[in-house]
Write a structure and sequence with these properties.
single chain, 103 residues, mainly beta, 3-stranded antiparallel beta sheet
């Protein structure tokens, strides 16, 4: 059996994590397997896809407060700073610190 578009020894395909990049399903390789036996051969082609990476959760916390997420916002005329945490399908988390909110 021989492969093209993948590891020549076992047909494996590797792809880097999407990390913090938002993305839909992507094709990372097109693999063709060729089998030869008794002077006959056959091929099959497969599209290898990587799952989408989306923001799975969002938490808003008062800046500098690593406790309970924010559930209410300040009264009119007040500015407060928040830290926003995003968790992605890839399992990574990122934060946007000191995001101002003015009511």
């Amino acid at each position: 059996m021989t492969y093209s578009g993948a590891s020549s020894s076992n047909g494996a395909v590797t792809a880097a994590s999407k990390g913090r990049t938002l993305s839909g399903v992507t094709t990372v390789a097109t693999v063709t397997a060729k089998v030869s036996l008794n002077d006959k051969e056959g091929t099959a082609t497969y599209s290898v896809q990587q799952a989408e990476n989306k923001a799975e959760s969002l938490e808003i916390r008062a800046a500098g407060n690593f406790g309970t997420p924010v559930t209410s916002f300040p009264a009119s005329g007040t500015t407060i700073y928040y830290t926003t945490y995003f968790t992605f399908s890839s399992g990574l988390q990122t934060e946007l610190a000191d995001v101002p909110f003015s009511a």
